[in-house]
Design brief:
It is built from 6 helices and no strands. It is mainly α. The protein has one domain: Globins (Globin-like, Orthogonal Bundle). Helix 5 packs antiparallel against helix 6.
Length: 137
């Protein structure tokens, strides 16, 4: 990722943080509406799950300048997701719901450049998670 892309992601995420609870509700609402087949992966309290999601995204965003220390944790997350039954194609469903949520939350601030930066960020992180999942099999 370029420094410019990292900047786009960090700046836009700073606007999401104050509305993170609502963003989590939007995200899971969209995910389950468009992809109901993934709902069985989620067994716990969805409010707690939303907080975990926002915390995880925040940690990744804050570490974009140096992801190396997080690689192991991201791979472990992918391994855990594989144990829950998550498949590679499910990552695209999450990407779709995430991009839609960011677009809703950021409105006009969700420019093509910001969208592209988020797509690149998610793609990079998802590939690390998929690698971790592959090790679980």
């Amino acid at each position: 990722m370029s420094p410019e892309e990292i900047n786009y992601v960090k700046e836009s995420w700073s606007k999401v943080v104050p509305i993170s609870d609502q963003a989590a509700v939007l995200f899971y609402g969209r995910l389950f509406e468009v992809y109901p087949e993934v709902k069985p992966y989620f067994k716990g309290n969805m409010e707690d799950q939303g907080k975990k999601l926002m915390t995880m995204i925040g940690m990744a965003v804050n570490s974009l300048d140096n992801l190396e220390p997080l690689i192991g944790a991201i791979q472990d997350s992918g391994r855990r997701h594989a144990e829950y039954g998550v498949k590679d194609e499910d990552y695209d469903k999450v990407a779709d719901a995430l991009i839609w949520t960011l677009e809703q939350g950021l409105g006009d601030a969700f420019t093509d450049e910001v969208k592209g930066a988020w797509v690149n960020t998610y793609t990079a992180l998802a590939s690390v998670m998929k690698a971790g999942a592959a090790k679980a099999h």
